[in-house]
Structures are given as C-alpha cells and as structure tokens.
Amino acid sequence: MPFLRRLRRWWHMRNPEIRWIVEVGVKEVPEEANPAPDRMDQPYPFVSKYVDENSYLLDDPDIMLTLFRSVVDKREEHIRLHGLPGEIKLLVARPDVANGVYLLAFNGERFRAWLLTYYGVITAVRLDEAGMGTSYGLRALRWLDEWTGSVDIVKIRLRESLYSWGPEFSVYIKGLDNQHHYLVTTLNNLYKYLLAGSARRILDDTLNALLDYTKFHFRSEEVLFDKYGYPKAEGHRKQHQTFVEKASDFMEKYKAGEARLTLEVLHFLADWVKNHILTSDHDYGEWFYEHGVPIVEEKLVRRSREVRAKLGLDKL
Ligand SMILES: [Fe+2]
Ligand SMILES: [Fe+2]
What is the whole-number distance in angstroms between the Cα of residue 284 and the centre of ligand 2? Predict the structure, then answer.
C-alpha cells in the first residue's frame, strides 16, 4: 500500500499510543530505486496549497524546538509564523488533541524526513536523502512516496542522544579514547540544549568549547603520528584540516547571524565525528597496535575488535 495511504489510515486509527514522533525503519530499499517526481501527476489532495513555501519552516530551529518542547512537556504551544504566504499564521501545538499539529519525524537508513501536519492536512515536508541532498514541499512528498514503498512504522521514539560512545570507537589508546568520549558527550549536550530550546548563550558556549576541544584533540593525534612515524599522517591531517575549515566557516557565519544552528548542522558535525573515529582513527589504532607502539592497550584492542565484529563494522 502506498506510504501516504498508509499514513492516512494510520492517522484515522488515532492510536492513543502513537503521538508526535514516529520512527520508521526501511526494509529492502532497492539499490536502483530512483525517485522520479514527474511520474506523479496530481498533487495530493490533502496537501495544503502552500506546502512548498511552508516547507522551509522545517529549517527554522525555533519552530522545531517549540514543537519538540510541546511534545516533551505535553503542553500547548502557540507558534506564530511570520512572512509566510500560507493561510496558516499560527500553529497551535496541542499534544492532547488528536487533530492538532503533528510533527512526524521519519528516520530511514537512507533518508530522513519531516512532515508537519495541521488538522490532518500536510502543510510542510522536508526530505534529506543520502547523496541526493535536501528537498522540500511537493517534490519531497512525491520522492518520499516513491522511496517508502517498503517502510513500516515501527515505534515511537524521540531520541535522547545522537549516539553514544562504545568499544567499537576505541583506538586502543586510553587517553585518545577519553578525548573521543568527551567529544561525543559534548555533541550530545549540544543536541539536548538544542531540543530543549536553551538560551543562545548556552549554545554559543557549547559550540565554542566543542570547536576548541576538537582542535586540541586533532593536535593530540597528530603529535603521536609524528612521534611514531604513522605513514598515513598526511591524509589524516588533511581530513582534520578540512573539518576545522568547515566548522570555523560555519562559526563565523553563525556569530555574524548569517547561519543558524539547526538539527541538520548538528547531524553533520556528529556524523562526521562518528565516521572519522570509526574509519580513519580506527586505522591508526590498528597500525599503532601492529607496530607495537607502547601506549596501545591490549585489552582495549580485544574488546573493540569483538564489538566491531559483532556490529559487522570491519566488513565495510
Ligand atoms: Fe580522533
Ligand atoms: Fe582523527
């Protein structure tokens, strides 16, 4: 059954357990799946005619945070929408009323999507696809429909953290593991502050601390590369440099008020850190171990390899 029909059916079921945030899992999205928006002839009848313009709402952290807060606190929130061409000028988020405003967040393996609904009408859609970028409005809705033929709603969950540090992140050196752990904790703190709608000053301080600590951490790794003659040091250093440039560029714009800290930005930072530790940092850990570098701890190697094997990480 097409995704949107299932969504409507689900909507009408109004299962009291199912409220705002729904996570879905993707089963068997075929490799060759290629979104083809032009094949859909008519816009969905239950979509607001302003869905395209309104969809940019979902890039507005204030609106997102107010909605999240309303969900978490189970309390009514009024959100005034300025400068939008739609008919909706005020969103009233009422978690206890089945037909109020719903924010549905879909997390699939290859996409992430937000749908904002207002009294049963889809008013805004945003879709992030790996390798495809972000699309909004009707286009995103059509693509989502194409993509989600194999999606099932599996459970309700508002993630409490981005991800947590585990032995699979270990680089076999206690000091560097502690630094990575601290980086992950800081990213999670930032995520919590963002969802909680914390004051700008708190977000600023955390962001600054994150960037400073990241630079310090990169230097710690590079000092060890030089000390022990790690052969892939140059490429690794370049990865660090590119990340620092991107993050500094964002910070400049952020301080000048030209960029905002959104969940998307945070996901970019967090994903980069995670992938970097699990692949590039893991590489030097292995090399240090194989070359008998004395700061490597055997028990960390054993534990990490065990967990990585279970997670199938080394097959990548
Ligand atoms: Fe690292
Ligand atoms: Fe690194």
Answer: 9
Per-residue pLDDT reduced to its tens digit, 85-126: 444 455 555 554 444 556 666 666 667 777 776 655 667 788
Distant-in-sequence, close-in-space partners of 315: CB < 8 Å, separation ≥ 6? none
CATH: 1.10.10.10, 1.20.120.50, 1.10.3720.10, 1.10.530.10. Which one for 167-315?
1.20.120.50
129 DSSP 8-state letter: E
Ligand nearest the Cα atom of residue 240: 2
Model pTM score: 0.56
Domain boundaries, the chain: 3-156, 167-315
Give the Å distance between the CA of 55 and the centre of ligand 1.
Answer: 36
Å from CA of 287 to ligand 2 middle: 14
Average pLDDT, rounded, for the chain: 74
Q: Which of 180, 183, 160, 182 is nearest to 171 (CA)?
A: 180
